[in-house]
Amino acid sequence: MAKYGLRTIAVLYLFFLLVLPVGLIIWRTFGDGLGPFVEALTSASAVHAFQVTLTVALWAVAANTVFGVGTAVLLVRHRFPGKRLLNALIDLPMAVSPVVVGLALILVYGRFAPVGGLLESWGVQVIFSTPGMVLATVFVALPLVVRAVVPVLEELGDDQEQAAHTLGASRLQAFVRITLPGIRWALAYGVVLCLARSLGEYGAVAVVSGRLVDQTQTLTLFVEERFQNFDQPAAFAAATALALIAVITLLLTKLLRPKG
Amino acid sequence: MAIEVRDVNKSFGTTPVLRDVSIDVESGSLTALLGPSGGGKSTLLRVIAGLEQPDTGTVRISGVDATRLAPQRRNVGFVFQHYAAFKHLTVFRNVAFGLEIRKRPKDEIRKRVMELLELVHLEQMADRYPSQLSGGQRQRMALARALAVEPEVLLLDEPFGALDAQVRKELRTWLRRLHDEVHVTTVFVTHDQEEAIEVADTIVVLADGEVEQVGSPAEVYDNPANPFVMRFLGPVTEIGGSLVRPHDIEISTEPVEGGTAATVSRVVRLGFEVRVELQVEGRDAWVQVTRGFADQLALKSGDVVSVRPTPGARSLVLATV
Ligand SMILES: Nc1ncnc2c1ncn2[C@@H]1O[C@H](COP(=O)(O)OP(=O)(O)O)[C@@H](O)[C@H]1O
Ligand SMILES: [Mg+2]
């Protein structure tokens, strides 16, 4: 009996928390057929938001992939002072609210801040522009690749890399030919997670972007702005698009996971 | 000399692992690094390969000072205890790895790899992945991979340590034959004295980071430099304050000159051999005799006999504590 009770609670919990809200969004989106959905998503602002989201996400994923693999190798294969500190810092973005991240970035890179001012004098605008949004997204998605790769790298051990060295491979050759293929599934998993997180980021980007419609508006910001302006069809359509992307990445991670 | 190691010291943290180690390995020889586990054998082998840096001392390979050379420049073949197979590459690509790094032409690589696979009897397995091979096959693949680059020296770290007894015995004999065919200077690590005696021409006994003795298997077995080596290389027993091999002891039922009185406590028949357990001066000892000899004396527990080392047999006087 207790078993059924628990099941009922679990199902109800998931229903009210997840199934009902998402289902309603999809219901509202497609309530009047496919036409309004397509129309809402092909408006100039929506298309622009898509482009901004994609640009920011791709740069952030690229940066986090390179940084993530590099840091994972550093943490697993090297000994250096401050290693534990670095290890702890990697997880910081998980604990800090994205809004705080955004504010912190403004403090450093804002027009009237020292670093930001210097960059501004060189013609590089960080805050209220793409670089700032990329920075914010990189920050919030920072641990994902590192944390996916570290355990696999540990399990892989360094025997194969050492064997490659004795066979004449340089560090780079051993990395490209031996290490990278050894961690490929974990890396792919980390990258997909990072992409999902980057596409869905709201808080930090909201702060540093300045929410300039048709300039720095990402898809998540678009949803919120349309909703505030009572353009519910557009808000729901974009929200559904985001949810669909999330579902697809979720399926991808499920495919990648068992091969870890 | 193919390898000259001079005064090498190495510590991990504050623990010294190698202490003033110096060894010479002759070109074309098959040398065993023998010693108890934790004695620093792997570390010494890794220092020779460049996978570990000595704190002090030098390593010369084929006359060239290699102490500061990166492993990829030393041209040594290394075989790891747990194979270190490249899991994502086929057997063929594993063996071809060193040649691909050296950018040899495709058909040359193909020819050389197939030759090597034949040498290690894996020609049928070329397209398999390491996960589809048995332990013994993986280790033979690792050996072919190391040989592919025609190394100056071949280093094997407990190459058969992870295999079961049967395969281990087969591969031992096979390694000896392979070495007679290929003649590459080979150093292999083992903690199994039988393996070292059976396979190597030279044995280096290493314990606690120090070289205890170097010599041919017969030398280290028959003329051990100290009680440790004597104990490590074969069975020993203590009679009259000396360490003796149990097969180097005479038993007689009559008192003999230089003999010590002993009481038989047990007679154990192990097929052809008979193990006679004794009480000598209040201590346990044992003697190994043939079955024929034991039958002749009709030994049984409680008998009083006289024992002495066979004249000419090597024994070591133990310092009295
Ligand atoms: N990378 C390492 N870090 C710390 N200690 C090590 C390392 N490698 C080996 N040791 C220590 O050095 C000693 C000798 O090890 P090793 O050379 O592997 O001995 P053997 O191969 O004779 O069993 C052991 O006590 C081992 O714990
Ligand atoms: Mg070892």
Main sheet record of chain A: none
Q: What strand line-up does the widest sheet of chain B have?
A: 6-7-8-3-9-10
Low-confidence stretches of chain A: none
Kindly, what is the distance between the CA atoms of the first and last residues of chain A, rounded to a whole number of angstroms? 38 Å
- Strand proportion of chain A: under 5%
Task: Give the CATH topology of the largest domain in chain B.
Answer: Rossmann fold
Structural class estimated from helices and strands of chain A: mainly alpha
| Average predicted confidence as pLDDT of chain B | 92
CATH 2nd-level architecture of the largest domain in chain B: 3-Layer(aba) Sandwich
**How large is the share of residues in beta strands of chain B?**
25-35%
Report the largest inter-chain contact. A-B, 16 and 27 residues
Encode the helix/strand succession of chain B as letters.
EEEHEEEHHHEHEHEEHHEEEEEEHEE
Indicate the overall shape of chain B: elongated
Low-confidence stretches of chain B: none
Task: Report the CATH superfamily of the largest domain in chain B.
Answer: P-loop containing nucleotide triphosphate hydrolases
Main CATH class of the largest domain in chain B: Alpha Beta
The portion of residues assigned to helices of chain B is 25-40%
Distance between the termini of chain B: 42 Å
The gyration radius over C-alpha positions of chain A equals 22 Å
* Class derived from helix and strand content of chain B: alpha+beta
